[in-house]
Each structure stands twice: as C-alpha cells, then as structure tokens.
Specification:
A: two-stranded antiparallel ribbon, 6 strands, disordered N terminus, B: mainly alpha, two-stranded antiparallel ribbon
C-alpha cells in the first residue's frame, strides 16, 4: 500500500546541491541551447509543473489519480475559447479564467471521486477524465477530434506597456522557469504546513486522522481542487507554447505519463516530480528518435521500448531517480527517512 | 419510437451489456481475488478480436477461431501471470497501474508489428448471416442473437463454476481470506493463475465474437476498458453478480441514450456512475 512505500519528504543535502546546480543549468540554458532545445526544455518545465500538481495527490495524499490530464487539457481549451480569432487577449484575465475552469472541474469531479478509496479512486478518476475527453472528442463545437488552434499568445502588459513578449521563445522560457520555481516553492511550503501534514497523515492512515477529528473529505477535496488548478496552469502554458490543443492532451495516456513522471523521479517531495518529468520527456524523445538499424526503424516502434522501459522501472526502481541518488549519496540516513514515511 | 425499433434497441442493449459483462467479470474477479488493477484487460479483448481476424482469414471458420483463439489466449494469460503479474499481487496499486500501462504500449506495438495498423473486417459465418424480419423494412441479425447466446451460456457456466464446484469454492475462499485458505492446504498460487487465465479467456472470447460486428482496429481495447471500469465501479469490486447487473444497466443507458438523447449520450453512462457513487460509494453489490 502507498502508506508502506517509503516516502522521501526531506531532501538530503546531496539532492539539494544537485537541484541548485540544475536550476543554474536551466537559467543558463537559453544562452547556449538552440531554438529547438529551448522549446523542448520549456515543454519539459511545463510538464514538470503538471507532474508536481499530480504529486500533491499521488505522493503527498496517497490519492492515485489516473485522470489528471483532464484538468491539464481543460485550461488549454479554456485559453483556446477565450482567445479571440483576430487579436491577442491579455494574460491578466485569460489565465485566471482558465485556472478557474480547471479548478471548478476538479472541484465538481472531486466531490464524487474523493468518496472512494484505493482501486475505486483510480478507476473513477479515469472514468470521469474519459467523460471529459469524449465531451470534447465527440462535439464539433468544442473542436472535436482535431482540437483547436490558439492563434495568438496572450499579452502581458500594464497600462499599454508590454512587460513580456511571449512570442519570444526565450521570454516564454524564463516565464515558465519562474512559474516552475514559484509552484515548487509554494508546494514545498504547503508540504510542511498544517494542511500538508494533514494530507500526509491521510495518506498514512485516514481512519486515524478522522478519529482525531480531521474532516478528511474536505482536506482531500481541497487537495484535489488545488492539484487540478495547478495542472490547469501547466495546461494553460502548454496552450500558450504550442498554440494548439487537442483531446489527446486530456487522454488516459497523458494521465498515465504524469504518474510515470512522478514515480520516475521519486514521489512525495515535488523535486522528484521535476526530475521525473525531465527524465521521462528525455527518454521519450530518445526513443522516438532511435536510428534505423539493419533496415528496421527502431524509433517507429517507440511504444515497444517505452512499454518495456516502464515495466523495467516498476520492477527494479519503484522509488525512482531520487531514491537511487539518495541511496548513493545519503548512505546511513536513508534508513532514517524511511521510518517516518 | 415504434415497437419494432424499441425491440431492436432493447436487444442491442442487452447484447452490448452481456458483452461488457464478459470483460467486466474477469476484471472484477482479478480485482477481487488478487487485488490487481489491470489496465491491460482491454488488450486481451483486442487480442481476441485480432486472433479472430487472423484465424478466420487462415481457416475460414469462426468456430475453429473461437476454440483455437480461446486456447491461445488462456496459454498467453498463464504465461503472463507466471512471468509478471504474480510478482505484483502484493505491490502498491500504483505499481500495478504502471506495469499494466506499460503492457498496453507493448501489446499495441506487437499488434502493429504482427497485423499492421489498418482496420480489418471479419466475416460473419454463413450459417449465422441471416436476419430475422421484424417489420417490412426492419430486421434483426441472427449473429447478434448468437453473440448474446454465447455470453449467456458463458455467464451461466461462470455462475455454476463459482457457486457449485470445488474449484469455485476454493476461489471464493481465496477471495474471502487468502491466508486462511492457504493455511488449509489449498494452493492459492494455482487458484490465482486459474482466475487470471479465466479472466483473459473471457475477455478474448468477447473480442472474438465481437469482431464480426465491431470490426478490428488499433486501440480497440482502450474504450472498452473504460466502460468495464464503469461497470465494475457500479457493480462493486469482486462481485460477479454486480458486474452482470451493472453491465446490463450500462448497456441499456448507453444504447437508449444514443437514440433518445444523442447530444449527451457519451456522458450518460458516467452520470449513472456518479449517481451510484453518491448513493453507494462502494458499488451496488460490494462483497
């Protein structure tokens, strides 16, 4: 059970140093990286925000959502509907409204799903996400299976002065990096706040938390809504970056990828979600780009490699990259951290 | 809606419901007894359908395809249980979700390598190709009645197996209390393997007999998997009776929803699920 799985909440010094080095690398990257890779890293950072939002449910609260992509996609769709056909709209009202769309959907769906536990929770989150998926997939008015184009990037201006030009890839990169950091700091603070401690308590033993007088339903629903809203932030940025949104982004593969990212990094501490998102996207990029060997285009069969990769990770490294790093760097303290998980 | 149309829709919904039951029964048994979330269950349905396509193309007989297809699927299920699933019965649900998600990718790619990415049709056997006329211009295909018949027979067989045989008694005991069953000297590992293979076999039969009606196409397992989840949630995990009733209910709501309320038909089944969750969060027939 998730309660028994060792959680790595406190980050050991080795991991902290690695994270700071990673941040410095991200800050410097647009100066050295090509346009293509700047865009790719922007996408990775967007997915890292998405993975962190899922980690709040999956790692911190022990709620495995297999439908988290729905809230990611909804904010992207909200942006597509809010953006006029012939002029750019301001970020000041498109962003809050898009977040509201995702948050509201998470609140309404959460109202039903947080009543369930374990396997039920997994299946019900997935089923509701598919409901949202088919709502958009089946309705031509909502873009249908082709999706929608977002013709303009939102403007960031105060009183007619443009602060940020999001059409500039480097500017968008730094905005995404800033938001990634902001969400990370926010979630780390949340993790150690009374609210975060209550969620962790619910993960370990919900009955006990209820017996102590915590209204676990309200806590779980708040976490679900907050996670949906933050997933919406990632979806909004995705829409801004790619200029295009389709039902696949809300599909069940996308949700499963997010779970994989959180597992791959190491869950319950948000840093793992970032590491996982970067690693997963990089592996996916590598596998899709595999060369042709002996007349067989290996990249074309990426699903086979990806599937095998996932199976191998689940078999041999269920605590992810941070779990391995921690084992290598922290040595003795690994056992100590396990005990309170 | 006149009576003939109503009758056709009713038959369709029952037949769809029974087909869903074949899949959901295996899924709910695997959930209930081994505690495994199996996202790849839809892939077994797809496997069955593609076996039907490949085997009828080779031998020209759907009966032979059913027999050989089921045998192959059961062997495949036993292998899979032995090599992979057995190691995951005591693992976190999260690990099971990821394992079976990885398997979906692998199965889809293998399907693509073996049979390509095109949509294929499977011919209805000549013996069953007729239609029963209902009015001057409406009729009902015999093959769909045959499908429903196969499902009813298998459902009956499943009921007898679980409630009347010694093996069924062991299965129920294993679901009720695994450790105690093992302590009584029953080989619970073998029971698990049998249940898993049974689930794979049922899903494959559903795929085989559905192939002539639905045709055979990539990712056909995913959509049916979600419907099975809905059925299992409504019926209650581990309850075969619940799965039957929920499957028929979902069949009715889905089929009549498409006729009466086409704008929201895709969502009706999920609304039904939401309503059941409000009323009974553990499903209608929680064991």
């Amino acid at each position: 059970m998730s309660a028994a799985r060792a959680h790595l909440e406190r980050l050991p010094t080795g991991v902290r140093v690695a994270l700071v080095l990673g941040l410095l690398a991200l800050l410097a990257f647009p100066l050295v990286g090509s346009d293509f890779y700047t865009q790719m890293v922007t996408r990775m950072m967007i997915l890292a925000i998405f993975a962190m939002s899922l980690d709040l449910l999956q790692g911190v609260s022990g709620l495995v959502s297999l439908g988290h992509a729905a809230y990611f996609g909804l904010a992207g769709y909200a942006l597509a509907f809010l953006m006029p056909q012939n002029e750019a709209a301001s970020i000041w009202w498109t962003l809050p409204l898009s977040l509201l769309a995702s948050g509201l959907a998470a609140l309404v769906i959460g109202f039903f799903v947080v009543r369930t536990h374990g396997i039920y929770f997994i299946m019900v989150t997935m089923a509701f996400a598919q409901m949202v998926f088919y709502l958009f997939f089946d309705n031509k008015a909502l873009g249908g299976s082709d999706g929608l184009y977002i013709n303009f990037r939102p403007t960031v201006a105060i009183g007619g002065t443009t602060l940020l030009d999001l059409d500039n890839r480097v500017v968008l990169y730094y905005l995404t990096l800033f938001l990634l950091l902001a969400v990370f700091v926010f979630l780390r603070r949340l993790l150690w706040s009374p609210f975060g401690r209550t969620l962790a308590g619910i993960r370990v033993n919900e009955h006990r938390m209820r017996a102590m007088g915590f209204g676990t339903f309200a806590y779980k629903l708040s976490a679900f809504t907050l996670a949906g809203t933050l997933a919406g932030l990632a979806g909004y940025l995705w829409g801004v970056q790619s200029g295009y949104i389709n039902p696949e982004l809300m599909g069940f593969h996308m949700s499963a990828h997010a779970i994989m990212m959180v597992i791959l990094g190491g869950m319950g501490n948000f840093a793992g979600a970032i590491v996982g998102a970067f690693s997963f996207e990089y592996v996916l990029h590598l596998l899709k780009d595999l060369p042709t060997v002996g007349g067989v285009n290996l990249g074309k069969h990426w699903q086979l490699w990806m599937g095998s990769f996932i199976v191998l990770v689940v078999f041999f490294a269920p605590r992810g990259v941070l779990g391995i790093v921690q084992r290598l760097t922290a040595g003795k303290s690994a056992g100590k951290d396990d005990s309170h998980g | 809606m006149d009576f003939a149309t109503f009758l056709i829709q009713l038959l369709n919904s029952v037949q769809y419901g029974l087909l869903l039951f074949m899949l959901a029964a295996g899924l709910t048994l695997i959930f209930g007894i081994m505690g495994v979330v199996n996202l790849a269950h839809g892939s077994f349905y797809m496997l069955g359908a593609y076996l039907a396509y490949a085997l009828t193309a080779r031998w020209g007989s759907l009966t032979l395809a059913i027999l050989a297809g089921v045998a192959l699927a059961i062997v495949f299920g036993l292998l899979l249980e032995r090599l992979l699933f057995r190691h995951f019965y005591d693992r976190d649900h999260l690990d099971q979700v990821l394992l079976t998600f990885g398997l979906i990718y692998i199965f889809e790619e293998l399907r693509s390598l073996l049979w390509g990415d095109d949509v294929h049709g499977v011919q209805v056997p000549a013996l069953l190709a007729a239609s029963i006329p209902l009015t001057e211009n409406q009729s009902y295909p015999v093959y769909r009645i045959f499908m429903a018949g196969v499902c009813i027979l298998l459902a009956l067989g499943l009921y007898l197996l679980i409630s009347k045989t010694r093996l069924g008694m062991k299965i129920r005991a294993g679901a009720f209390n695994r450790d105690m069953t093992e302590a009584l000297g029953i080989n619970i590992r073998r029971i698990h393997a049998v249940v898993f293979a049974l689930g794979v076999g049922l899903a494959a039969v559903a795929g085989i007999i559905a192939a002539p009606v639905s045709s055979v196409y990539p990712n056909m397992g995913s959509q049916v998997l979600i419907m099975c989840f809905v059925v299992v949630v409504i019926g209650g995990i581990g309850s075969v009776r619940g799965a039957l009733i929920a499957a028929l209910l979902v069949g009715l709501v889905d089929t009549f929803g498409k006729v009466l309320l086409p704008q929201v038909a895709g969502m009706l089944v999920y609304m039904l699920m939401a309503a059941v969750l409000l009323w009974r969060p553990e499903g209608l027939f929680k064991q």
